[in-house]
Specification:
single chain, about 675 residues, mainly beta, ten-stranded mixed sheet, about 40% strand
Length: about 675
């Protein structure tokens, strides 16, 4: 892979156990793949656990090849376990982050600690789902678990995951929900589980369910989301936590909260990256993340003083200005550091509103109105940038006609921000349920506008995410909400722009009715977390260059079509269509002989004048084959944002060769709960 130094000569020779069964207390067995030093039974080592539903046999196999042998070669056991009901493991999986998932993980950790090749101590590492459950399991306090590295994860399952954003229904609820459903419907590998693969697969097809139905059922921050949210009681997590993420990812916000609230040892690292491990993520610069992991593991699993405990609590990439683009190989900038969070170098810089302007002096007495078309937000890119695809926001000048735009004069001196911008606004509505979107951009000298941050609030959630309050039409209220965290430098001569709209498509679905928003300039302000350079910045040692174990070999049987992300407008009907097509083609993994074919489409359609025209359809097709064995899964899900209900239409087809195993269609409606 680009820029990565491949390491094949390690301090300790590595052996691999392709599959090993870990028994659960109820008799179900989980499938594990393990890499460990050849002499580990004579010289036991700590275990590093990655615990996921993403199929160790083929789903994460490329990433696992880069990571776990590297850990093993440096004196650890890299352990990759398929969760219950996924991959090659037995049982069924009825949802994400359930208590059963945590209970199984506790049993896995206990089992690992007792193995003759294990020293009795365990660490957990994971990105996204694996980052989530690392924190959740840490809160259960298993004795053998001594440290966690959690990447691109969250402390709050409601406010910082794929389901709801400021109480607004996220389009990712459908996108990710369909992806998770497709994964949950896939079969185990007959070479691992034998002839019972068909029985196990049918158990999943009937028992794993459609998890996103739960997410549409629970539209408030109730006990469903409180479970697994460590922010409910940060004191439950006592062991050291290294929280890692990127500005282009969907999950940077929780890092700041965890640094502020976790009671024990914690450390944060935020780069320019998307939703990938930092040694191969984009945008760069990439860094020696596996070496950084070893420093953490050596310190807290082996008791070796690596110096990491004496370094600043937070290290973040301060991005320099860059023209808007859907993808970057690298983002210019520099590393900065804070000894704690909130950092001592962070202060508030307030800008008041007047028509078309942001300024430090008092705002005007004007009342401005906006009723955005449903297409407002089409330049926003994906909620979560996956780092190697062109899904970042493009030029925000495209949004100027959809929003109220406020802008500073050219800055007289450079300014840097780090943390959460906030928007305090005095507003009124003509409807009881509506959204407000606030987008912060950097305006370059040539007029190009690069999005820096944004925030969305369903105004029925303005006080609480459980006890909701409709707006009183015509009554002005003052609301304050946080935008997404960021680290950004603005140069002298550039401008700061704030754009206010009543929608943000297709990040979130529109509200149930067209609504007009009135902004009282005199009671509104933008609050920026301005950071002054700190002496600590100059003390930072450079990260080592990225390196990994040898990449996994694979044969490309058929290349997929190029990635597509496009917006089209029907000039007759007026509807706008947002389309993403991701086609992985067909590849063969020589080490297992398995051939895989995958294709995903996402289509979101809306009429600019009709919020109830909003609809999205996501499809997945997956095929697994080897010799005479062939299993195919096709799923399709459509969500329609009708005035009073969310209408979900799903279709599952599963085939074993030419035989149809399942062909099931379902329609469900979920009453809209003030969103």
């Amino acid at each position: 892979m680009k820029d990565i130094r491949v390491v094949t000569d390690f301090p300790r020779k590595v052996r691999e156990i392709e599959n090993l069964w870990i028994p659960m207390p109820d008799g179900v067995k989980l499938a594990a793949r393990i890499w460990l030093p050849e002499d580990a039974e004579a010289d036991p080592v700590p275990a590093i656990l990655e615990y996921l539903p993403y199929r160790k046999r083929d789903g994460t196999v490329e990433r696992d090849a880069l990571t776990h042998p590297y850990f093993a070669g440096h004196g650890y056991a890299g352990v990759r376990v398929d969760m219950r009901g996924t991959g090659d493991s037995e049982g069924v999986c009825k949802g994400e982050y359930l208590k059963q998932e945590q209970d199984d993980c506790l049993a896995v950790i206990e089992w690992l600690a007792k193995q003759p090749w294990c020293s009795g101590t365990v660490g957990m590492i994971g990105i996204s789902w694996g980052g989530f459950n690392g924190l959740q399991v840490a809160a259960r306090r298993p004795p053998a678990l001594k440290a966690v590295i959690s990447l691109c994860s969250t402390d709050d399952r409601y406010n910082d995951d794929v389901h709801y954003l400021g109480g607004a229904q996220m389009c990712d609820n459908l996108m990710w929900g369909t992806t998770a459903w497709a994964i949950a419907m896939t079969p185990p590998d007959p070479l691992i589980v034998g002839d019972r693969w068909r029985e196990m697969w049918e158990g999943r097809l009937d028992g794993n369910g459609i998890w996103m139905q739960d997410w549409f059922e629970h539209q408030r921050r109730d006990d469903f989301y409180k479970h697994g949210s460590i922010c409910e009681d940060y004191s439950d997590v006592e062991i050291p936590v290294y929280a890692v993420g990127g500005w282009a990812d969907g999950y940077p916000n929780p890092i700041f909260r965890m640094l502020e609230h976790l009671p024990g040892v914690r450390k944060g690292l935020i780069g320019p990256w998307g939703h990938k491990y930092p040694h191969f993520a984009m945008p760069g610069p990439r860094m020696g993340f596996l070496q950084e992991c070893l420093r953490w593991w050596d310190q807290y699993l082996k008791g070796i003083d690596t110096g990491i405990a004496d370094e600043p609590m937070l290290r973040a990439w301060m991005q320099d200005p860059a023209p808007p683009a859907a993808i970057y190989d690298e983002r210019p900038g520099r590393w900065v550091a804070e000894p704690s969070w909130p950092g001592p170098g962070i202060g508030e810089h307030t800008l008041a509103l007047s028509p078309g302007k942001l300024a430090e002096d008092a705002g005007s007495d004007d009342v401005l109105t906006i009723r955005s078309p449903m297409t407002a937000g089409l330049s926003s890119g994906a909620w979560c940038g996956y780092g190697v695809l062109p899904t970042l926001p493009v030029d925000q000048r495209m949004e100027a006609g959809n929003a109220l735009v406020f802008e500073t004069e050219p800055l007289e001196e450079a300014l840097e921000i780090l943390g959460f911008p906030e928007f305090e606004v005095k507003l009124a509505l003509d409807k009881p349920v509506a959204l407000i979107s606030a987008t912060l951009s950097l305006v370059l000298e040539d007029g190009g506008a690069s999005r820096i941050s944004y925030g969305i609030l369903n105004l029925t959630h303005r006080h609480d995410d459980l006890d909701l309050k409709p707006m009183t039409p015509g009554k002005a209220e003052t609301v304050r909400f946080k935008l997404r965290c960021c680290g950004q430098r603005f140069e002298k001569g550039q401008r700061i722009r704030l754009a206010i709209a009543t929608g943000h498509w297709p990040i979130v679905f529109p509200g149930p009715e067209n609504a007009t928003l009135s902004i009282h300039c005199a009671g509104s302000r933008l609050i920026l977390p301005v950071r002054k350079p700190q002496p600590l910045d100059k003390t930072l040692a450079a990260f080592k260059g990225p390196e990994s174990a040898a990449p996994m070999a694979q044969d490309v049987i058929k290349a997929g079509e190029p990635f597509r992300r496009e917006v089209t407008t029907n000039q007759i009907t007026g509807e706008a269509t947002y389309t993403i097509i991701s086609d992985a083609g067909t590849v063969r993994h020589p080490h297992t002989g398995m051939t895989l074919t995958q294709r995903q489409t996402e289509i979101f359609i809306v009429h600019p004048d009709d919020p109830n025209s909003a609809r999205g359809t996501v499809t997945w097709d997956k095929t697994y084959a080897r010799g005479d064995w062939n299993a195919h899964v096709s799923v399709s899900a459509t969500v329609r944002a009708l005035r009073d209900v969310w209408r979900m239409e799903t279709h599952l087809v599963a085939r074993a060769g030419d035989e149809v195993v399942v062909d099931r269609e379902e329609v469900k409606e979920f009453p809209r709960d003030l969103n």
